User: Which sequence fits this backbone?
């Protein structure tokens, strides 16, 4: 596999908001941050994907900072990403976040054909992590595949979107509404 240049990756990420183009990918911001409460029960079975109690959406404070206490969070991209048929997507934390005590939980790759405002999971290992709403959280990159796939992603998370998009939002862990 070959890693794409940031300039190439940027063609598959809708803007605004503006992304920061790096040599080997693009830095992206968050549109939503959700906290998973301690002692949550998660269920995965067939089409069921849920957490009880539900995740709590966080808002930035009056200075524009998300205040994250030690724990687990899901972060939704502010940019829609579309993975072309001849590529696979990968998302990595910005190294500054790692150095300051935020750890991105590894997730699977982003399949060819996926399109949406994806989410990434992070664990805050310090007592409190303050991150401004305008900061970039992740670096997203694409890699070429040996050959084009014979079918594109049509899974559960296709079309995920932030609550601020038109219509009712979709919380992390909820299935997207059926397309009309």
Assistant:
């Amino acid at each position: 596999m070959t890693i794409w240049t940031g300039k190439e990756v940027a063609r598959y990420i809708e803007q605004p908001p503006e992304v920061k183009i790096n040599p080997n990918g693009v830095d992206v911001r968050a549109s939503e941050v959700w906290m998973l409460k301690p002692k949550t029960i998660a269920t995965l079975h067939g089409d069921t994907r849920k957490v009880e109690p539900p995740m709590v959406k966080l808002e930035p404070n009056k200075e524009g900072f998300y205040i994250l206490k030690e724990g687990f969070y899901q972060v939704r991209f502010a940019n829609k990403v579309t993975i072309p048929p001849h590529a696979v997507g990968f998302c990595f934390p910005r190294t500054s976040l790692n150095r300051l005590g935020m750890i991105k939980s590894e997730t699977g790759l982003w399949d060819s054909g996926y399109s949406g405002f994806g989410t990434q999971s992070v664990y805050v290992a310090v007592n409190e992590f303050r991150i401004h709403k305008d900061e970039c959280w992740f670096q997203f990159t694409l890699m070429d595949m040996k050959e084009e796939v014979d079918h594109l992603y049509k899974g559960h998370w296709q079309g995920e979107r932030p609550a601020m998009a038109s219509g009712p939002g979709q919380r992390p862990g909820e299935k997207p509404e059926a397309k009309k």
